[in-house]
Amino acid sequence: MSANLQQSMLDAIEIELKQQVARLDQPRTKDFHEMLTYHMGWTGDGAGPFAAGKRIRPLLTLLSVISCFDEDKNKEGKDGKINWLHAVSAASSIELIHNFSLVHDDIQDNSELRRGRKTVWANWGAPMAINVGDALFVIANQSVMDLAEHYPAEMVVKASKILSQCCLELTQGQYLDMSYEERTDLSIEDYWPMIAGKTSALLSACTHIGSLLGYANDEKMENFRLFGYHLGLAFQVQDDILGIWGDEALTGKSASSDLVEGKNSLPVLFALEKKGPFAERWHQGPISVDEVDAMADLLEKEGGKAYAEQVSEVETQKALDHLYKANPQGEAGEIIIGLANKLLKRNQ
Amino acid sequence: MSANLQQSMLDAIEIELKQQVARLDQPRTKDFHEMLTYHMGWTGDGAGPFAAGKRIRPLLTLLSVISCFDEDKNKEGKDGKINWLHAVSAASSIELIHNFSLVHDDIQDNSELRRGRKTVWANWGAPMAINVGDALFVIANQSVMDLAEHYPAEMVVKASKILSQCCLELTQGQYLDMSYEERTDLSIEDYWPMIAGKTSALLSACTHIGSLLGYANDEKMENFRLFGYHLGLAFQVQDDILGIWGDEALTGKSASSDLVEGKNSLPVLFALEKKGPFAERWHQGPISVDEVDAMADLLEKEGGKAYAEQVSEVETQKALDHLYKANPQGEAGEIIIGLANKLLKRNQ
């Protein structure tokens, strides 16, 4: 049952995304449209589900919508049930914003590959890629406004404001991330505002907007929002740990280690604040592939891994606390709890 | 009297723009905020009215709002008059979109100077400049949503949809412009869709949204929209003429000639379609500064200038016809007619 609902949502999300992006499918802009469909994972070399990504964000949005409904006290929709399809343009909007930021990120980071495929700028050049990102952002705005077909205009305005605030935080997180590259005085307190913008803002927008569109009351909505926010923080810290001590980072292909890439992850910032041997070596310049294993060991000995694991545990607990307070209902509620545990790498 | 109203509007626009951009004026993002205030012309080397630009678009928006009102039949506002201040966040939104597109354009065109000052990317690098443009776009979205303080949510949604459609056309125009650089088969019919996106979309959004917020009926709104649209086309064609035969293009500093920059302007596309000596030389590669005078003469002899002048005249007439049908009222109406004639370089 659960698998069916989740798959129905993922199918509906993909259809909606394709329809939204098709705004550019016009006689003179076929090639432009193709740049977007390539990035979204639908066309070109390597197209397919892996290239498209998991669509976690729009799925989380739709699950939040219907898990707000108590089966016994439904407010609207066909057959007395909420129609989650009515919220699919909001889910699509969030996924488009995520992808707009990826296209621009790849230019900013000079990344030539994403999910094993050439990035948009690597294929068509940075000027075109800037414009592709801009178009994805524009279509995200159009997508959220399409909510007006099924929701009162006041709610559309609210959803749009939440989304815009999230986007502002995205640009702030991106700014901090870029500005940190030149700094040598970073500490743990510099981590949170960057991650709040780069990861948590969008995940909290999913659960915030989802619960808004599920007609949740203010208290429930706030719990949904904070669930998404702490889910984002916990998820990012785990990603930081895997980026240094995960299989891919340590086994052979160490070029993919966050240590080689010089990423200001939480374990690294912990060690920089400590000003020990790791910090001393870090400030001397890029870590080579040969050094990765020794540096990962050093960082672990200095307590960077244990600290990050502890933080991840705290944030995970906060996320789950807010989720339980939000009290997600029915089949969607079960899926959302399962999804949270899966993202947080926990056994239920 | 007229000068006072216009100046009051320009003052209010500047205050609103500063307040909107101040969303980034937070402890950790002071430097980021400064990149935006620099671009807007408020801070840094060369700051001042010239750096800021004329704010024609937001002014046109506010003038459209109140010129919809018949003094005898006012619908709302203090003292029985519409309060154009209620629409200032929409005017600000349009100016922010214009500036977002300028920041990204400058990266795409590799332009190091704008209005005599270093561009954002020339100052802070392309990665930061991409993010500055993105932030201006986000704040434009927030600005238009602030209309909800004074207008019904349904109208805010409508205004936002108009703005987004305009932005989609901007990205399409930008795509066409960039894609034309590699093409050798261009003709006049390729000109209009590019210009419609790059110049007319935003000007028609000004008069369209302005008249919407002035509570115009559908017919009046359509005339306002088409006034802005044809104003944009006429203005662009005149800019094309000046870019080749204007004082600055011809006198000494010919490096600023559109011919040297290889711009696919209307006179050039006319000649390319004709496939005469000008087209032959154009296809052989960049025009040098030494050749500019001779090439401008050749283009004029082949009829490129006369054709563009004729097109400009036709579009100017269409713009003014729609403006008269829109029947702008009162002091604002007089200013808008004066502004149109000034932009279209006509004596009233």
List the helices and strands and how they pair.
Two copies of one chain form a homodimer.
Chain A: H1 2-21, H2 30-39, H3 49-52, H4 56-67, H5 88-108, E1 113-114, E2 117-118, H6 120-124, H7 126-145, H8 153-180, H9 191-213, H10 218-245, H11 247-250, H12 258-261, H13 266-274, H14 277-283, H15 292-301, H16 304-326, H17 330-343
Antiparallel strand pairs in A: 1-2
Helix pairs in contact in A: 1-4, 1-5, 1-17, 4-5, 4-9, 4-17, 5-7, 5-8, 5-9, 8-9, 9-10, 10-16, 13-14, 13-16
What is the gist of this entry?
Two copies of one chain form a homodimer. With 348 residues, chain A is mainly alpha-helical.
| Percentage of residues in DSSP E strands of chain A | under 5%
Of all chain pairs, the largest interface belongs to: A-B, 46 and 46 residues
Helical amount among residues of chain A, as a percent range? 55-70%
Q: Domains counted in the coordinates of chain A: how many?
A: 2
Rg calculated over all Cα atoms of chain A: 21 Å
What would you note in describing this structure?
The structure is a homodimer of 348-residue chains. In chain A, helix 13 packs across helix 14. The first copy, chain A, has helices at residues 2-21, 30-39, 49-52, 56-67, 88-108, 120-124, 126-145, 153-180, 191-213, 218-245, 247-250, 258-261, 266-274, 277-283, 292-301, 304-326, 330-343; strands at residues 113-114, 117-118. The first copy, chain A, contains 17 helices and two strands. In chain A, strand 1 and strand 2 (117-118) form a beta hairpin. The first copy, chain A, is mainly α and 348 residues long. Chain A has a two-stranded antiparallel sheet. Chain A folds into two domains: 1-53 and 84-149, Farnesyl Diphosphate Synthase, CATH 1.10.600; 152-348, Farnesyl Diphosphate Synthase. The two termini of chain A are 19 Å apart. At the A-B interface, helix 5, helix 7 and helix 8 of A face helix 5, helix 7 and helix 8 of B.
